[in-house]
Structure formats: structure tokens, C-alpha cells
Amino acid sequence: LFETIAWRDGKAPHWQRHLRRLQRGCERLHLPMPPPDVLAAEARRVCAHSKLAVLKIIVTRGSGGRGYRPPEHPELTRVVVRYPWPEYPDSYRQQGISMRMCDTPLARNPVLAGLKHLNRLEQVLARAEWQDTQIAEGVMCDTDGDVIEGTMTNIFLVQDELLLTPDLGQCGVAGVMREIVLENAAARGIPCRIGRVSREVLYHADEVFVCNSIVELWPVRRIGQYHYAPGPVTRELSRAISA
Amino acid sequence: LFETIAWRDGKAPHWQRHLRRLQRGCERLHLPMPPPDVLAAEARRVCAHSKLAVLKIIVTRGSGGRGYRPPEHPELTRVVVRYPWPEYPDSYRQQGISMRMCDTPLARNPVLAGLKHLNRLEQVLARAEWQDTQIAEGVMCDTDGDVIEGTMTNIFLVQDELLLTPDLGQCGVAGVMREIVLENAAARGIPCRIGRVSREVLYHADEVFVCNSIVELWPVRRIGQYHYAPGPVTRELSRAISA
To answer: How far is CA A132 from the centre of its chain?
Structure first.
């Protein structure tokens, strides 16, 4: 399992949410949760001199013998590491990004859906599909052809003033920023639905945006041949989550 | 990607098959294939003093920065390692094994199907479902409920003298021993079909067996409440592949 966490001015603003997701992942994969106070102390140590950094926590089942059978009492491997803040163009946040549709499908498996586990070969293959630096992100669909997420972001669209985001019960990563967007929408009375999102619905949306813990929210200007203008719902939610 | 290879008396009898599968995996994952002569020299070195051993080759995309984007020129990590031969009871091979049905489903994704890649969380969760040492292996079904394979073996059944094994176009690992069984069946005129295998068909089969490169062939005596007797087709193929 892993968590990718924004570290700002001596703390991780969404620390509790990341820890809750890590806890849920540990439960689903039958791993003992690392003690939160140990993780917090390690995070403060590796980010001690950083105003702005990406903090990554990796938890694995640890070392074992050959074969798939997990050790009875796994000794977790825990990695807490700091990365430099990525330098994305300001325009991504202000004017929005260009995306493409990826060919690599996401497999559906309710047992793994939502988790931020480390079996990410699908995302690696999807991200390898393009080199064009004008394309900031790719849309991934499941094996049924429905829209699920970006390679490193969750995706939202607005159609007739309804906010819509894919259901992640069968695949996809349930992002911390997705949760924050949903809560902010609810708090502002923006009607929202979590459900099936077809490509056609995405292509003909009024507004589209993507989000994750590091980039927060990027409006989408283009997906392949389809163009979008950052609209009022995207702007309102963007202000809300970066407040 | 990885390969698990039987090493006997100074060589790997199915070396070329393992290398062909590794090559196919490298092509599908866009990895440069390690030079076969280098792998062969390393295999001979790590197994130099072994009459009987498990040789494992692991190939990864190597080290890179944060994020899913693969490096333009990956420097592969290559691991060639020897493990002791596993000590399974003789009865597994002679009288057969007991199996159980696993609850953890296999996700369907044609892009990854057949490959012996390292994203094996499903197998780890499936193998963690039981502790009973009387159960040697578990049957895994896909998310549609069809039978695909064992956690570490491929599965075959015989019904009305027809040999049947699941199609691996959507998920599963295409094992080297599965290939050998299929070729031996063809060479002996045993009619064979690769296709969809429902649980009901498996439960009511005349014979069932599993296979992999290390165990070769184990007849199946029991899957849950269903019992089987090792039959003539299983015996004939068992003799053929261990010849």
C-alpha cells in the first residue's frame, strides 16, 4: 500500500484522511496497521526542513520465502520518504489541462477496488502510451469501457449542474482529494451523483476536472477531440478545496 | 516479470520455454529482454552445485522516480536466485491432492492475461484464505465466476474423455507445464479443448489435475465436497510429462 501526501509548512493538511485510507487498506489486505504516532514522527523527521514537499508512505508485507503464502506474522516493511514538489505549469491549474483517452483498460475486482495498493502495472502501461508533453494526464476506462479515473487522478464532470464521478466499487483508487471534493460539493449544496460514467457522457459534459492530493484540482480543457471550458462548478470547488 | 524454473542435474529441462515466455512478457510490457546467454550463465553460476533446485528469474523495470511514467531508457533490475526444492509429500503426486474453492476473484484484463508478472496481490489474498495443511492448493475463478487456475498451478479436467482447460485470454498465468501438457495430449491423440470452464463442469468432471513447472502434475482427489479418482488420462499425461 502507499500514500502520496502533500506536506506544507510543517504539516500534512490531510494527514488523518491519508491514515484512514491506509488503515482501511491494511484491513482489506490483512496487514497490521503501522502505529500512527510512529508514522507521524517519521514524517516530521523526513520533512523537517521542507516548506513544501511530497511525502510518500509505503507499507509492504515485508520479506518472505518463495510462493504466495503470506507469513503468519508478517514484519511489515515501512518506507517514509520525501520527494521534491513537482513543478507543473501554472496554466494547468488556471486554464486547465489537455488529456487523452488511454487504451490500457482497468481490470474490475471488488476485492482490490478503491485501495491504493502497489500493483500498478495498469497505470504504468497507461502512462507509457504517450510522450507528448502537452498531454498532462490520461483517462482510464474499465474493461467494460466505462470511465473510471485518470492515471494519477480522480475525474469529475458536470452535466446540467449535476456533479458526476465514477463509482469505484469495481476498480480505481478512491483518492483523498476525491473525498474532499465530494464533501465540499455536499457542503455547498451542489447536487452530486456517484455512478456509471460512459465515455459519451464524459465527451459531452459541460465541465470536466481531475484531482489528487498533490495537484488538488486541474480543470480539463480538452480530452482528445472534445473541448471544455472551465465552468462555474469547477471554479467554485477549486476555490473551496484550496482554501 | 518472473519465471520459476526446475533445475535438475546441471540444467533446466524447459529453459527455452521459460525464456520464450519471458520474452513475450518483455514485449507486452515494453521491457528490453535480458540477453539469454547472460541469463544462462547466471543460472549455471547460482545452481553450480545443485542436483535439484528451484531457479527463479525476476526482471523489473528498474529504479525510477516517483510516478507511473516509465523511464525512457529503463535499466532493468535482474535477479537470478536459487531456492531449495520444496518438500511436498509423495502422496500429492501419487494419490492426489485436496483443494478448496477460493473466494478471492481474478480480475479480467486482456492486456495482462497470460503474463507471469509480479502484480500478484490476488494470489497472495487467495493463498491467505486457508491455513489447513491438508489443503494443497486452491481454485481461483474470475470475476464472472468461471474457473481459471490454481493459486500456483494451471488446472485441467477430463469429461467424457475430453481434456478441458480454461482459456487464459482474460486472466490467469499461461504456465510452461500447461503448454507441455497440451502438447503431450495432442501428440497422444487425446482430444482437448481450451475454453470456458464453469464451476459446475469442474465439480462434475471425471478427472481433475493441476500442474506447474516444479510439481509437474498433481491429480486432484477432492475440491471442497466433490471427490475424484485419478483416472487414465491423468495417469497417461503424468507419465508423459515426467518422462
So the answer is: 22
Nearest to A40 by CA among A73, A63, A62, A7: A7
Low pLDDT (below 70) residues in chain A: 243
Asked if B109 and A110 come within 8 Å (Cβ–Cβ), the reply is: no
Set of cell numbers at residue B184: 503431450
pTM: 0.95
Distance CA A58, CA A81 (A): 8
Burial grade of A45 (CB within 10 A; 0-12, 13-18, 19 or more): exposed
Cα separation, B152 vs B104, whole angstroms:
14
Q: Give the Cα separation of A230 and A239 in Å (integer).
A: 13
Grid cell 474493461 in the structure block, residue: A143
Amino acid code (one letter) for B37: D
Q: Give residue-wise pLDDT tens across range B36-95.
A: 999 999 999 999 989 999 999 999 999 888 999 998 888 999 999 999 999 999 999 999
Q: Which of B70, B109, B125 sits opposite A111 (nearest CB)?
A: B125
ipTM: 0.94
Question: What does the pLDDT look like over B190-212, one tens digit per residue?
Answer: 999 999 999 999 999 999 999 99
Residue A4's H or E segment, with its range, is: strand A2-8
> How far is A66 from A73, CA to CA, in rounded Å?
16
Residue A38 three-state SS? helix
What is the per-residue pLDDT for B173?
Answer: 98
Residue B33 DSSP code: P
* Measured distance CA(A202)–CA(A174) in Å, rounded: 19
First to last CA, chain A: 29
The three three-digit cell numbers of residue A106, written as one number: 482497468
Chain A residues lying within 8 Å of B111, measured CB to CB: 104-105, 122, 125
Contacts of B108 in chain A (CB under 8 A): 107-108, 143
CA-to-CA distance for B98 and B227, rounded, in angstroms?
9
For residue A187, give Cα distances in angstroms to A184, A190, A192, A215, B91: 5, 8, 11, 22, 64
Type of residue numbered B66: R
* Residues A128-166: tens digit of each pLDDT: 999 999 999 999 999 999 999 999 999 999 999 999 999
pLDDT of residue B243: 61
- Residues of B with Cβ-Cβ distance to A61 under 8 angstroms: 124
